[in-house]
Amino acid sequence: MNLKYIGALMALLWVHLVNAQKFEGRIVDKTNNEPLIGAHISTEKGLAAYSDSDGNFEIEMPSEVAITLNISFVGYKTLQQKVGPSDVRIVFLMEKAPISIDGIMVTGNAKTDPVLTMETNDYVEKIVQPRNVADLFNDINGFSLIKRGNYAIDPSFRAAQYEQLNVQFDGGTKAMHACPNRMDPVTTHVIPEEIEKIEIIKGPYTVRYGATFGGIINMVTQKPEAADFGLHGSVNAGYESNGNSIVSMARLQQATENYDIVGNVGFRDFGNYEDGDGTEIPSSFRSLDYGVKAAYNFTPHQRLQAHWRQSYGRDVLHAGLPMDTDEDNSSILSLDYKLTGLSGLVNNVEVKVYYSYVDHIMSNTRRPSFMMVDALSAIDATTAGGKVEFKLRPNEKLSLYSGVDVLHIARDGQRTRLVKRNAVGPLPMPMEFTDKVWQDSYINDIGVFAESKYPLTEKTMLTAGLRYDNVTSEIKDPEADFQAMYPDLDKRTEHNVSGTVSVKYVPSTRLIMEMAFGRGVRSANMIERVINHFTVGQDAYEYIGNPELDAEVNNQFEIGFKGSLPLSNNNSDRFNYGTSFYYSFYENYIVAVIDETQTRKFMPTQQPVNPKVFRNLDEAYKTGFEVMAGFDFYNNFNFMTEIAYVYAKNKDLNESLPLAAPLTSRFKLGYKRDRFWVNANYTITSRQDNIALSFGERSTPGYQILDLRLGVVPFKKLTLGVAALNVLDESYNNHLNFAFNNQANFDRIPINDPGRNLSAFLQYKF
User: Fold this and answer.
1) Which keywords does the record carry (predicted)?
2) Whole-number average pLDDT of the chain
């Protein structure tokens, strides 16, 4: 390189240094002047800093022109203030935002937040592609996806899934699936573009949000902030090349200090995608969603909110299930009330009630089995519940959260079969049969809980909680053969006790250490209790429920730490790290086991002849870890490495527990400015040989995936993005994918994930 160019570059750098200076400030609460620790400060040039334990910060600024500082802190209104070269040290007063009732965990206080949590919140601002629900969890460390196609996708975390995870949205609202094959999990009733963030508690480390066995997932939908007062809205549109898929959404809101109302509508039309070998996977679907959220702030400390939403799925193809969805219609209503800032013993009061109804119709008209049997199922599910919680302050140090919550789940419906032929040939007259899918069953759970937080020292917080659940279940209309198998069927009541204790140590703003023990108790779900000779697993077996199952218990220990270290005098250059190590031993673990005393009910000549029946096993455990390390450097660059591993063992059957994800490593490199960002994600998934043979699992080879994303804001209100997913066009299947089921031209092998996929996204805000 010519020396004159090096000299010119050094001259430019020198000019920059000469014309830059450090600006110092302090960030405090407007009402009590308490310092806010970890507030985020940024400039339009992309420079960033964080406030320290005294609320102080310093950031580089030009010596000749004014700049605008953007200061944000969870639970407070975002502050924008212009500062100039002549300004001396400024104290910034942050004002608390109107109270929110959508989240459940993060308050912005490192000492009092629940232990061992994760929060991911880039789904709105940095979205650069149309997404299905899979993308909500696909890049979160420790998570994997259970896929039956491109629609009915369930998250799995640390080999816990389905009702083992307490999945909810907006702080407690639930909508349970109607289909016994889980064609319509709760994730299908929420528009992905509507999600603002996902909150995760990694284990049974709190008793405040319902019975929790393996962890809590709370999907928080968007809501107006103080900066959004007035009439605003947005329009989104996107396209995916693999499947010629389109998504769209429109959102409109009106917000003032006293009230806010938000409405949205979204449409999705996904075609069959192709895997890396060019094989077309039957996975198309269409869905229409809309919702309205309205709230009124009676005072700055008192808020009432109502949320109504409906979702309609049509012509959904499920490659890994025996039938397809003709219609899936859901309606969800929730009401939330919160009162804060009270004096005396009671500080806060929260009340929540919700109701959801799912109407589901599925058939086999597109399947090979239709030549022999015309099957149609019309089923429904009702979920209702609520919660009342009080925050008590018996003294200056102790905080006590106490309350009652209720969950009601009811399902009914039937399958009609018109048998047209058997193994020998066509029947002279088709025969019609009716099968009771859910046998008109319900489960009621009434929980009473108390959880306290007490500071042992200025830097150490002790949390302890205890919960009692009274669980009542009943099968009101049992099938004759099910009644014969369980002659003492009657209303049943279970008494479950769970609890937790944890310690959080925060020696500085740069380090948090956490230790926790949780005992999570989960009563059997409705599939495990009442299903009667239906194929609901990954294999070809019929499954039979067991209404006499004992509640499953997870005794989980975990230790974790996270923090950051400055790499230079520039606060934006940091080394970030975090890890969690956990061990769980189970009591009464619920698993389906082949019962040679029973025989297949439907298509009795088809293999396998003996069905599976759900049983309790005692000798089961799991252990694992998640590790994260990364750098923020050169103001705008970031690099992160994440590794997750879980090992699960069923000692009774001498095999793994089912659906245990393999070792997964992620490498993420990104560059971000205010109006431009680009990132590359490289994921290495290892081979999985630790399998559950009794569950129909097989070894899964490892694979590597590269994803590239780019976004730009050419104008203040317009966002454009493009992405290339699976750039290398890898042909692969995740270990948790179901196998093809009742599909023409496909053997019973695992479903491959999409091959190379190019997408484009546009969002306009006004």
Assistant:
1) Receptor
2) 90
